Prior knowledge:
Strand content: 25-35%
Helix content: 40-55%
Order of helices and strands: HHHHHEEEEEEEEEEEHHHHH
CATH topology of the largest domain: Jelly Rolls
Largest sheet: 8 strands, antiparallel
CATH class of the largest domain: Mainly Beta
Distance between the termini: 82 Å
Number of domains: 3
CATH architecture of the largest domain: Sandwich
CATH superfamily of the largest domain: Jelly Rolls
Number of strands: 11
Radius of gyration: 25 Å
Amino acid sequence: MRRGALLDYLASDAAPLAAAQGALFAARDAWRADSRCAALLADLVDYGAGTALGRCPALEGALSDPALADGPVEAFLDHMLPVLAAHPLGQMPFRHGNDGGVGTLLLAREGRALLSLVVREPGRHERCAVSFGDGERGEIVLAGKARGRLVRRDATLAFEPCALERGTHVALDLTRNALLVDEIEARLVTLRLVRIAEEPGPTREYDLANGQLLHQSAGDPGESRQELMLALLGRMGRTDAAPVMAEMTRGGSDHLRWQALRECIALDTAAGFAALCDIADDPADSLRAPAMALRDQLCAAHPALTELEPA
């Protein structure tokens, strides 16, 4: 059957695609129940709820010994590949993506923990920046060969070369450590475990050449959505949102409070400046110093603002 005819057929009858998805979901469930990975996935539940990795023996073992990681991965292939071969137009019931020669497949997510397979294609990967998040990550090489660098962030960035081959494993505190894979000789396959911090701080990106901070973004997806909301309301000129923005400066992360303050000042000078003064006059506020500096800067540029300062 020609490709166009096949697509027309599938569009006219949803039953084949529904059957394909049903088969793939059944294969996923069979993998989860397979004895080769049941203990690993049970540990992932505990780890995602905050249990220390040392108290999750199956998970800790898979992240330190490739022979222990092989079983769950082989079980995944045994269950999923035959069904994919039988239903090539089915959609994998796992989040997956590919970007710049790096493919990621999310095997499971429980609470704050994510377990993924990561594949990096051969070649050299040039980069000019490195990012640090908030959480912890363990990764073990299952196949392939590459060279990379461990990056440590203190007052400056420090680098340690590392060889990556089957059995190499790393444990990273993501606020201070990162792994850069620079050159891949043979396709690199790793099993990666990430646990996001309970209240994640911002993700920061630094210039590899000089260690300068290039960019900072919220580590919490919910906070990122709020930042986008603030920016959108600001660009729309929604002055009616200024009271809500002023209220947002009184609680939450420093990063989100500061964004709310900036947008509030831009929308409603009086409301925003009042919120700024509240922060600058509170000795216990973590944003007091930058708020005082901003207030002085604004008053110098716009002397009329001094009339809005509280007595």
